[in-house]
Each structure stands twice: as structure tokens, then as C-alpha cells.
Amino acid sequence: MAELNKVVVRFLDGKVLKGTTQDFFPNRATFHLLPTEGGNGIEVRAKQLKAVFFVKDLAGNPSRKDVIGFIAGPGETSQGKKIAVLFKDQELMCGYSLSYLPEREGFFMFPADKESNNLRVYILTAACQEVKAGPAADVLAHKVLTQRPQE
Length: 151
Prior knowledge:
Blueprint: E1 5-11, E2 16-21, E3 30-35, E4 42-45, E5 49-55, E6 76-77, E7 80-87, E8 92-97, E9 106-111, E10 118-124, E11 128-133, H1 135-147
Antiparallel strand pairs: 1-2, 1-5, 2-3, 3-4, 5-10, 6-7, 7-8, 7-11, 8-9, 9-10
């Protein structure tokens, strides 16, 4: 039997769905989501997505702020090389990836923030404005973070 994964699915149009899936595979065009509210499963099309967040807890912690950037993390870990992703909606995510190749439809990233609710994130390349790996990831993260107003 397939593993039951808790996921938060973010669509390109901003819509967010939470639930579980047993049939997500990166090389498939669709997967099924069982919503947390109950009801029938929903077929989700990968081309409509920004990212799929595999999470520890579907409720998360709304009061917690994820640390954005690399927090002086190493250049490479067992989870891969540093990678910074700037989405088309201007969200910045930093982490590590073993599988990023620009010609692929998507890739997995592990968050740089170890306290994040995210275990891993599957990012759709089409939703990205810019992706940098290795030392260039630090440069992109620094550039984006210094251009933003302080919260």
C-alpha cells in the first residue's frame, strides 16, 4: 500500500488545498488529493500548480514565521546543494536539492529552515522566475531579501 502523505497544494492562481495523497509522483501529470474537510477525492493537474508541500502537520503553526534564507548553512548537505527559488509571484524559498535540472518539469527541495513545517517541497519549474544553485543561490537570496521592505 502506498504511503499516505500530508500535503498543502498551492496553485498558480493562488488557491490552496490541504489534504492527503497516496499517488503523487513527480513524473505524472495528475494525482489525487483527499481534502481535509472530507468529501470526494480531487484530481489535481500538475500544470496548474506552483508547488506541493509535504508537511509534518496540516494545521501548521500560523504564528510561526519561517526563516527565509540559508541561515549560514553549508553549501551542500545530504539533501543536496543549496538552491534559491524566486517564484513568479515573488515568493522566495531557500533550501537544498538533489534533483534540480532546469529542463525538468519540477524538482524536490528540502527547506533550509530545519524548524519549518515542510518536510520537502515539489516545485514546478514553470512557476519559477529564477532558480539558482550553489554559491549563486546565496547571491539570489541576498539580493531578494535586501530589496524587500523589513517586516
